[in-house]
């Protein structure tokens, strides 16, 4: 990762950032997108860091299998945002006469770094390469970013739309009609579907430790995750069109509702499922992400309501940094031992949680209070970084 502190990269305030927007073709940052990204990352940290995994309010849990809770929306929202961001960061370089070889090399380098950071989180602190989980959240972000960025540079909007449809239909065909060895055709139960069979075949011993036989960020389910990224690219390119903002906003909402409706209808035969990243899940979550982005775009970039945005902007401009460190720091805290009054030793994180929260709140509220406090602590750190105009690029 590298650190930059240039005025052109990160303005002093959200208001300055908003002033940089001078039209749909401006290559600068879109304030509403930074807010949406920051909101998503803050939600990701909230749901990933409860004080007690056994005491969590239902909306902050993943669905047991089929269906979707608010927590299940966080990761697809982020991949959708990755797609939108690609259109703003690469649009000015898409039509360079010199070609894209150097740019694709940089994209590949960034993707490898993201993938490596994800592996590091899985390796730390034991660094057991024999059983390290290879798939993961950052790993999937890296793959989706690389594929979508190359597609954006090398294909047209129409081709991207066709490819997204082809991916969703092909994945449905594979999961519903290709027989799973030893199981049969059309099974979608945990560990008894084509995606799980392929994970276990190719990554045996390097999968999610809660199952050891399949992975929620596995190989085959990464294919529709790319479709989520493409949906974001399509939205980003629409936002960049030089048309009337009211028309632009109207069609964003129309597309959002069509995607949600199609996802809900498809759910009847190919259930909405985050662990499998089903085609219905892609459409349903992309439609909801479009709604959130459209609302942010209307409030911030059209109506100019920006005073409330800074907490989300400070999260949004250092999104990968805070995600990585928020996964690393709790492990470090757990490695530091503290002696209780009764002489027993516990990790520092457990000690702080028991001392500051469980002694005051009920178990489920203590767990939530810890998660909220964790988000607020990081907000303070990121606020200082933002005011000093520090952004860490991966």
Automatic annotation (TrEMBL):
The chain crosses the membrane at residues 73-91, 112-131, 137-153, 165-188, 218-239, 251-269, 281-300, 312-333, 367-386. It comes from the Bacteria. Keywords: Membrane, Transmembrane, Transmembrane helix. This is DUF5009 domain-containing protein. It comes from Rhodocytophaga aerolata. The lineage of its organism: Bacteria, Pseudomonadati, Bacteroidota, Cytophagia, Cytophagales.
């Amino acid at each position: 990762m590298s650190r930059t502190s240039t005025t052109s990269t990160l303005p002093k305030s959200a208001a300055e950032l908003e002033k940089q927007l001078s039209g749909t073709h401006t290559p600068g940052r879109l304030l509403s997108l930074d807010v949406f990204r920051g909101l998503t990352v803050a939600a990701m940290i909230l749901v990933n860091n409860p004080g007690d995994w056994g005491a969590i309010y239902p909306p902050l849990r993943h669905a047991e299998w089929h269906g979707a809770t608010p927590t299940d929306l966080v990761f697809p929202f982020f991949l959708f945002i990755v797609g939108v961001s690609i259109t703003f960061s690469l649009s000015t370089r898409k039509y360079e006469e010199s070609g894209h070889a150097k740019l694709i090399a940089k994209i590949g380098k960034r993707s490898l770094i993201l993938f490596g950071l994800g592996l590091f989180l899985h390796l730390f602190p034991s660094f057991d390469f024999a059983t390290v989980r290879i798939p993961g959240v950052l790993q999937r972000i890296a793959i989706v970013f690389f594929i979508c960025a190359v597609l954006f540079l090398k294909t047209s909007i129409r081709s991207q739309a066709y490819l997204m449809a082809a991916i969703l239909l092909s994945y449905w065909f594979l999961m519903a009609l290709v027989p799973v060895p030893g199981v049969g055709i059309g099974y979608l139960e945990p560990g008894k579907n084509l995606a799980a069979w392929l994970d276990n075949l190719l990554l045996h011993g390097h999968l999610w430790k809660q199952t050891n036989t399949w992975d929620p960020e596995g190989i085959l389910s990464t294919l529709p995750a790319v479709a989520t990224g493409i949906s974001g690219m399509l939205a980003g390119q629409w936002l960049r069109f030089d048309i009337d903002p009211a028309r632009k906003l109207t069609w964003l909402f129309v597309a959002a509702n069509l995607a949600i409706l199609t996802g809900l209808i498809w759910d009847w035969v190919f259930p909405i499922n985050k662990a499998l990243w089903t085609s219905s899940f892609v459409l349903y979550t992309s439609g909801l992400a479009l709604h959130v982005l459209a609302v942010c775009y209307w409030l911030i970039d059209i109506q100019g309501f920006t005073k409330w945005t800074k907490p989300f902007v400070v999260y949004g401009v250092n999104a990968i940094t805070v995600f990585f460190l928020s996964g690393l720091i709790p492990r470090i805290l757990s490695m530091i031992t503290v002696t209780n009054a009764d002489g027993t030793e516990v990790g520092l994180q457990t000690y702080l949680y028991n001392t500051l929260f469980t002694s005051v709140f009920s178990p489920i509220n203590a767990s939530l209070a810890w998660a909220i406090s964790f988000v607020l602590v990081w907000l303070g750190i990121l606020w200082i970084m933002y005011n000093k105009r520090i952004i860490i690029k991966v």
